[in-house]
UniProtKB/TrEMBL annotation, chain A:
The chain crosses the membrane at residues 6-24, 36-55, 75-94. It comes from freshwater metagenome. Residues 5-95 form the Lycopene cyclase domain. This is Unannotated protein. One of its GO terms (cellular component) is membrane. Its main location: membrane. It is found in: Membrane. The keyword Transport does not apply. Keywords: Carotenoid biosynthesis, Isomerase, Membrane, Transmembrane, Transmembrane helix. One of its GO terms (molecular function) is intramolecular lyase activity.
Automatic annotation (TrEMBL), chain B:
Keywords: Membrane, Transmembrane, Transmembrane helix. This is Unannotated protein. The keyword Transmembrane applies. The chain crosses the membrane at residues 6-22, 34-56, 90-107.
Amino acid sequence: MSKFAYLSVLLGCLVGTAWLEFFLRTKVYRRAVRLILTILPVVVVFSIWDAYAIAQGHWTFDPRYVTGITTVANIPLDEILFFIVIPICAILSFEAVRSARNWEAGDEETK
Amino acid sequence: MTYTQLAVLGVSIAIILDLYVFKTKLLRRRVFWVSYSIVVFFQLVTNGILTGFGIVEYHGEAIIGSTTPQDEPPTFIGDGRLIYAPIEDLLFGFSLVVLSLIIWIWLGKKGIQREPMAGPPRKSVHRLLGIK
């Protein structure tokens, strides 16, 4: 356990889902513009929530296990990365299920 | 507001955005519920690490359960917690995942990198996925 404990969990999430891009051809990272446009508003919204929760003392971070780098409104860098990594993992999982089962997801071309 | 209240509010907003604002209707789709079940399983595992080791600690005033104890893990199941994490985290995670998917699908519907669509899976994983 170290300053990189939190980051290691996030890295585990990225590594654990990366195979979907190759073996299920999720093509999520390949659609980088769409991915970035998705993540940006999510990071903004959840950072506001995080900032409020930190200010109110809803949750705290053990300084032994986070990088110690803080961004705006006392939000640890680790948390900002969480709001980037988790949406990527969620979208990869979603596109993987769609790839495997061919189910409609709502963004198909309407004929 | 407490974390409990905000978590319920977050889920409510996510549902309204999906069904009525963006009209992505993910919550009515099989692909969402199957992928969400997979995601929530891994959320419990990773969040169990974050909360069980006390990387993230919670204040009892903000959650249904009590404050994360010093120098020992919180309750595994019980005291408003599931696998060490406050049950509010499930609602938080739901909001985060649903909001991400709403925007992703909405952008695709608008034609922003709709292509290349996902799939098909490589032949090497067909057996793993039960594809004949």
